Amino acid sequence: MTQRSVVRTWLTRAGFTAGVSMLVMGAATAQPVKGLYIAGEGGASFNQDQTARLSPVFPSGRDHYQAGVTGIGSLGYGLGNGFRVEVEGNYRNNRLQQFRSSTFPSSVGGRQQGYGVMANALFDMDIGKSWVFPYFGAGIGYGWQAMNTYVHAPNGAFDQHVGGTTGNFAYQGIFGLSFPVPWVVGLSATAEYRFYTLMGPNGHHATATGIYGGWDKTKEFGVSSGNRDTRTDFNHSLMLGLRYEFNPAPPPPKPVAAPMPIPGPAPTRTYLVFFDWDSAELSTRAKAVVAAAARNSTSVQVTHIEVSGYTDTSAAHPGHRGEAYNMALSQRRANTVKEELVRDGVAAGLITTQGFGESHPLVVTAANTREPQNRRVEIDFK
């Protein structure tokens, strides 16, 4: 598989993973990282061609590497305002694919490995989406480059082995996306790109046998040793990983539903109009009650209005004669209230009247007892 096809494969995988994360993590919410966290990532490592210069007489050229693997583990601390600091350990492994030199064609083998310790500073961006947080950062540290490669010229004319480990200062740039995992508080999936370089040149021990040339010179067949300098060491990585916060901020409280408004008191549908003893005349207070009933009849649904008259149990002539008198008095009281309602604008066709005499008292009393609460008319909206 060529390096270009490997790049396409890893980009496809990263894009697919990010898309799935957007779908399954849409309900997740997160706060800026605060406190201790750990993270781990793995993915593809891509070395740019590395310029190699050999001395005293080895051929110079460029190392071309296959896509390899990389892994990173880090321990960090979030400040709660978007900024994070962390310490990481990293590892990269790429197999040598071709040694590009104008001296002679060759076949190659072996690999280059890199590992290092870095201190990073990063910033998480809040873009208003609870399911994704872009971040970027940079790091400095120290890295090591370990070589174990072979270059073979045709017919045994030249065989070269480069080995050993060298170290130097390193720096890197970081850009990534984190996706909070909704079902595990504090856990986030990450998709990340890193550019990493080891400052150079970085020298390795080289040995060679055969007829070899360098700097356009030729030597007799034999064994020679010298130094091989790698002048450029630029690496690009695409990785997927997980990050876990040990003390995540609690999720924001769910919005409390506004309390249902308390309904106001229902409009009055029953009115009481009281009368003096042995009277069907409306007092000033009674007229005000009837007027209020007339006004409110337009603010509630009314199909008809029942006006019911009553008396107390007192009578000038006790017995059936007194009961009959009180029945007639209660009817007169109901008629009086109806007439007042009509004067206040209520349609007469809506109103029915009925006298009940001494029955249905508000206050139960003995016979022939004067009780103001029982001398009344009830107006009921139906």
Short description:
This is OmpA-like domain-containing protein. Helices cover 15% and strands 48% of the residues. With 382 residues, it is α+β, with helices and mostly antiparallel strands.
CATH C-level label of the largest domain:
Mainly Beta
**Rg (CA only):** 49 Å
Structural domains: how many: 2
For the sheet with most strands, the description reads:
12 strands, antiparallel
End-to-end separation: 89 Å
Q: What is the residue-mean pLDDT, rounded to a whole number?
A: 84
Per DSSP E runs of 2 or more residues, the count of β-strands stands at: 18
CATH topology of the largest domain: Porin
- Report low-confidence residues grouped into runs of 5 or more: 14-29, 213-218
Tally of alpha and pi helices? 3
Helix-strand topology string:
HEEEEEEEEEEEEEEEHEHEE
Helix content: 10-25%
Q: What overall form do the CA principal axes indicate?
A: rod-shaped
Secondary-structure arrangement, i.e. CATH architecture of the largest domain: Beta Barrel
Secondary-structure-based class equals alpha+beta
- Please indicate the percent range of residues in DSSP E strands (runs of 2 or more): over 45%
Keywords: Membrane, Signal
Domain OmpA-like: 262-382
Pfam family, one: OmpA
Signal peptide: 1-30
